[in-house]
Here is the input.
Amino acid sequence: MASASEQGGITQSSPGLFDISLIVNGAPQAVRVPARRLLSDCLRHDLRLTGTHVGCEHGVCGACTVLVDGVSVRSCLMLAVTADGARITTVEGLTEPDGTLSAVQQAFADCHGLQCGFCTPGFLTTITAGLAENPDPSPDQAREIIGGNLCRCTGYQNIVQAVLRAAELRREAGLKREAGLTREAGLTPEAGP
Amino acid sequence: MLASTGPDGKVLAGGQSLVPLLNMRLATPEHIVDINRLTELAYVSVADGQVMIGALARHAQVLADPVVAAAQPLIAQALRLVAHPVIRNRGTTVGSIVHADPSGEMTAVLALLGGTVLLASTGGERSVSAEDFFLGPLESDVRPDELATQVSLPVLGARAGCAFAEVSRRNGDYAVCGVAAMVELDGGGGISRARAAYLSVAGTPLIADLTEACGAGAGADLAAAGRLAMARVSPGSDIHATAAYRRHLAGVLTERALAGALAHAKGRSDG
Here is the structure.
């Protein structure tokens, strides 16, 4: 599954405590955790990445969703030791290195896709993975992507809009990138957007 | 390892059922045996008329497999109703069957298709049929020193069709009532065999033979099958639904699932 575990591997430092290594938002992290530590608690308490929110702690609300090796996963339903060696992306890791918001984050701002914000980290990570799998979702498919996330403020309409807007932003960014590459290669795009 | 931990040990695969139980302190095993590194068990294959699903194959992996979808369409029909995509990314199909939740879609699929579960221990392997596997709600015939390594499900026959119908309070929730149906056609377009599995209406998946109720010939009496289903189930009441509502659903969903299975069978026979 993972590279870091194959190099180092999980070790028990003292009874009930394990040394694990994770790559969180691109940065390698070594953490000592009890066997029973949830990945959500490891991220929040051990690594102080409090962007990952814990709502229900039994997999219903979706607020704690993170990406594990690019796949959306409930961090409250995964033990930290199971994640040893994995690449984790939390909501903190969605922003571009220069601080620019990701397409999904920008779409939430554009469409007013949040109110209190508690559920937002889970929506952002879930939609990021959902659009990677299906870059051009229909409104129904957008609802299916967010079907496992609860929001008690917005009534979901604006979040569905944000999914569609994010897909649009990703396409625009893709077109710009392509146009840039074409210019660099000394070619003229047939029709600029 | 399971042999040494005995009844105090619990196998962790996808964790989408076990970890909620741990978090709510409903389960407090002394030892967790995490099988997530046994990646050789993350397989799905079709051979000799059987779909074989390894213990570490995630729902999402099984659902996305085109060979499985072609060989036994009921599997994908059911998996689309298992929770949400994010849960399906982690949860394993074998794990959900071993968990033996009477409201689980895949338990009904195993029961309806008459599949088998392969159990391994240091003493060897044994294969248990679906009818012997489910002992009660959340109780299956896995001994503490055993690991369920594989589930086998027969592929769909030539003149057969299947469908899954369920009602849940919200998209992805546990089914208030669900029906998996399978029909086989005779040469003349009539039903030669009709069976259905029911979830959330009994402690273990309930199977009903609806062949006689449907009647012979091309004009199948699905309403009669629905009435038979209502007579056969004995659901309980809880905060989600009354027994009477569940019984009503069993009738409606039987008709709906049988109609779907019939159309599916006819489509496959014509194509």
